[in-house]
Every structure is written in C-alpha cells, then in structure tokens.
Amino acid sequence: MKNNLFIVLFLISSSIIGQNDGWNISTTNNKNYTGIVVANGRIGMLPSEKPFEIEQIILNNVFDKESPLGVSKILLGMNFGNLEVEIDGEKITEATITNWKQTLNMKEAAFTTSFNFKDKATISYTLYALRNVPYTGYIDVKINAKKTIKTKVTGKIITPEEYQNPMSTFRVLQDLETTMPMLQTVAKSRQGRHTVGTSATFIWHAINSSRINQRPELTHTKVSEYDNRLSFEKEIKKGTSLDFAWTAAACSTQDFFDPQSESERFVIFNLLTPKEDLLKQHKALWKTLWEGDIIIEGDLQSQQDIRLGLYHLYSFARGDSDLSISPMGLSSQGYNGHIFWDTELWMYPPLLALNQDIARSLVNYRSDRLAVAKKKAINFGFKGAMFPWESDDTGEEATPAWALTGTFEHHITADVAIAFWNYYRVTKNKQWLVERGYPMLKEVADYWVSRVTKNEDESYSIKNVVGANEFAQNIDDNAFTNGSAITALQFANLAAKELGIEENTTWKNVADNIKIHKFSDGTTKEHSTYNGEIIKQADVNLLAYPLSIVADKETLLKDLKYYEPKIAVEGPAMGKSVFAVIYARMGDVDNAFRLFKESYEANKRQPFGALSEAATSNNPYFVTGAGGMLQTVLFGFGGLHITEDGIIQKNAILPKQWKSLTLKGIGKEKKTYIIN
C-alpha cells in the first residue's frame, strides 16, 4: 500500500514538474483567478482567464487627478489587448473551449494561453510587453485547423469610460507601395491633463506586409467612440494554420509632444519588422536582465516564488527611464501608482545587488525631483530637502490630505539618502556622486539638522511623526525615523569625505546625539510612549537591518522576540522578511526560513502565486513584498552586505530545505556566489 501511494504521489509530482519548472509556471485552473502582469517598465498588461481578453493596461508615470478635488492617480490605458475570434460563425468563449492552459515564461517575459475549440481547432496566443519597443504590446496568435474552418478575427481598442472626448478612426497609411492599416483612438485623460493616443493593427507573418492586396480584407466598425474595431475573415484549410499578430502602442503627452503620431510610428515599426527579429530583440534584453539571478536547487516552489518576485521587479522598471516603482508596480492602479518608501527600503536593495542599471533609474527619479523637495522643506519651515510620502511625476506631495502619513511620515527623506549612498558604495561612480549623490545627501542632512529638537541634556529628539508602524501617529522619537536620520547624517559626511570636503561637525553632532529610547530591560522602544501595542509592520527591527544602529546580539534577540508577536495579521507582506534577514545573519537558519516563508506564503494568490499586500487582502501584485522576500535570500541566507568596500559576503547559511543557493551577477563585477 505504501509503495502504491508513493507511485501515485510520484506521478502527481512528475506531472506538476512537467508543467512547471524554475522558469515556467503553468495552470489549468481558472477558478479564483488572479493574473500575472506582463510589463516592460512603460506599460503593464494584466491577462485574464477569459480567452483573448486582458483585464487592463497601466501607463507608467502618466497621472491625472482622480477627481476634481482629488489627488493624482495613474492612468489606465486604452485596452488594446482584447480580440474577438469566431469560428464558423460561433464566438470563442469560456463555454466553447476545452483543455485551457496558461503559462508564464519568466525567462522570456511571455504569457501563453492555449485551448481547443470543439473538434475544429487548437489555438494558442502569446502576450508580450515588448522590452525593445516599450510603449507597445504584441499578441502572437496561431490557429491550427483540424477541419476546414472559416474564421473572423476582430481587434479592439476599448477606451475606459473615464476618458474624455475620444475620437476613433481607421486609416490606411501609404508610402510608395507600402500600405499600413491603422486603427486609432485619441482622447483626453479623466481631468484633461493628458492626451493619450493608441494605435493598433494586424500583422500576417506569412505574407509580405507591404502588399495590401495579399492581406485579408479589413472591415472597420466603430461601435462607439469608446469601442473601435478592426476585423478580417479568412478560411483555414484542414491541417493548416493561420499565424498572425495584433500589435498596438499607447503614448501620452507625459512622454511625447505628439502621442498620436508616435503611437502610429511604433505600430508601423512592429508591423514592418519581421517577427523573428522583433522577438529576438525582446528576448535578448530579458536575457541580459537575467544575468542577475537567484538559483535554488532542491526546492522548486521557493525557486518559483523568488524568481516570480524578481521577474516583477524587472518588469516594472527600466534602466533608461529614470523612473521608480509603485508598490503595485504596473499591475494595477493600487495606491494611485504613487512612489513610497517601498522603493528605497524594499525593492531597491535587491535591484542594487543584481542590476545597477535599474537601481540608478530609481535614485535618479528622486534626484530629478530634488528642487521640488527643497521647496517642500521651505514650505514646512525647514531647511534642505523634504521628500513627499507619496510621490507622482511632479515630485510634490501626492498623499490624500486626510492621510496623516503625507504630512508626518518623514523617514522617507532619510530613506532616499540611504539609497543614494548605497548606490555609490556599490558602483563607486564618482561622477554620479558629484552630480547627483552628494547634492542629495547634503540637502537631506541639512533637513534633519533643522528638523530635530534639542533637549536639555544636549540630546536631540524628532517630534510629531508617523513611523514605519503607521498604527502609531503623531508620536515622538520613533525608533526607525530616528535611526534612519542618524544613518543619513552619517552617510552625508562619508560622501563629503569621499569628495575631499571637510566634515560637517553639525551633522556629526546631531547624528551622535539623536535619542533611541529603551525599555528597562534594554529592549529598543518603538517610540517615546510605546507600551506594547500591536504594530502594522517592522519598525524597531529595521535598526538592525537594513540599518546598523543595533548590532549587539543580546539586543537583537530581545528586539526580535519582543516585536515579532506584535505584528498585525493584516500587516504588509514585507514585515517578517526583516526578522528573517536578522535571524539568518545571526546564524539561526530555522527561524530565518520560517519567517521567510511566513513573510509571503499567506499572501500568494492562485493560480500563479501573485503576492497580495496582506494575508487578508487581494490586491496583487505587491512588489514591495517581493522586495522583502528577495532581501531575505540575498542579504540573509546569501550573506551579502553593502559596505564601504562594495558588496561583500560573510556568514552565508543554507536552509536545510535547499541543496544549494547560487547568486548570479552580483555588484558591478557581476560576481557569482554559491552556497552549498
């Protein structure tokens, strides 16, 4: 009986592994479905379980006010990702297909759906957000005919209702003998701040796209200005296939003076570039991204979870954009698409280790908004630069006014400075330090000097803040706020020394004397009046990692044991990852692995493992949580440390559940570390 059970389990396991590996996650389950976004740092497309549909498109860094009296909110793009396919007059729907399967190929950033339509055809299509043409999407379709069938395919541009005054058209552009059919919609964003232009067309791979008389005849239908359609019909003989693509581009006045014309040019580029060349470029760029990778042997589930997190970090950012990453990336309009400390504290460290090109983009996003941050400091009576809790394209405060975090959560300013010095530590890019790094660090240090209050005992307090634990509001001497301010002041003087600038004694004096409160037994106190309340997320423990304010083992253990039970169930995914890193660095691999899993497993959503922000919510993909999970692997188990000498490794440990851990492409030297 035991042997039979073993055989059954082995067969089930083999079946799963056959469909899923370290690079591919497949599913045949479309119940309780949460899709995995396909993105390229400029646009994000969220697939659906329904055939030939996607849920939505997100346009990165394109904002308009959510309402006349509201704050900014990232824009939904016009949905160009929905096709309507009919075979012999019957529409393909969930009810008319069998053997449905979806596969995310993380290596090539390709999302494939396949199914059978009755006994007439097998169909597959692959969705790409082209990395090489980043304002475009590409849907590559193949219909294999089991019988001779007549097909009708309709491509659509569906404009969200929030857009104003859309104008939908169809034109056939022509240059000499080359003809280029173009479906297009142009509209104003919800409050009129931006013009968005979206263009789309069909591509037939098997024919010369410059000869329109060889194409199927195209039919344009405008259901309304919000529903613009282009169709063709074609017979497919038994045993043959129809191979075609639907490609589209979405541009806005955030990035282009003439988004309408630019969207047409991108579509023409995709139309007239052979598919093999176009996709080869896309795959080559992703191959370069994956030079920074994490490889686990012996634990397929952990490998998939970790690589999925890294896939999302790479998908949501670009090294050539000088843009940052929102907590939900390009998967949704969550948190209005704004930029928080989530980037600097959680997403940035893994990227700094694995891809300095993207890391530079994240810090440059802040540098480009330094002048606005200096104005904010002046407006609140301080010196230097004061960064907003929620930032949009402008760099001004974008937090809803009712949320006290926007007015009082000030540690973000120190978090930015810490990220800046860490970028220099890893890259040693002195020109960047001169032009962007030190100017930022100086302004942040000046801010904290003006922000502190001097006490009678010559110490300094930082009063009236919201800390990382946002359950505690308008408190004094929050542990993480004070610790991050100390670190930012110290880093500013280190940067000055690197450039031959005399040490600022005021910065040093303030850093040396900012208060960190303690309980009577030596446990670090979260703020001056903290008395054991439930906390939203790690705060005190951040003083041990990523900061180095608390370093002695006795205090580390006291802080870990005291605060872990106090994290709320509804707290965000990254909270326990901090505890996991600290335990790993202390050599306690069992507690580290336990907390590593607890930090994200309850937040996974079927069928691909997308992360929700909390165990009790359903708003993936929460890339902040992925950042925490990846930090546990890199800076905990992997033993990596960011130091004045760059990234070094010490005291790596391997969970007993893993056979080996390999970290590839670490630092500017792209080192490989193997932990057996």
TrEMBL record:
This is Trehalose/maltose hydrolase-like predicted phosphorylase. GO terms for molecular function: carbohydrate binding; glycosyltransferase activity; hydrolase activity, hydrolyzing O-glycosyl compounds. Residues 34-202 form the Glycoside hydrolase family 65 N-terminal domain. Keywords: Hydrolase. It comes from the Bacteria. It comes from Lutibacter oceani. Residues 307-503, 526-601 form the Glycoside hydrolase family 65 central catalytic domain. InterPro entries: 6-hairpin_glycosidase_sf, 6hp_glycosidase-like_sf, Gal_mutarotase_sf_dom, GH65_N, Glyco_hydro_65_M, Glyco_hydro_65_N. GO terms for biological process: carbohydrate metabolic process.
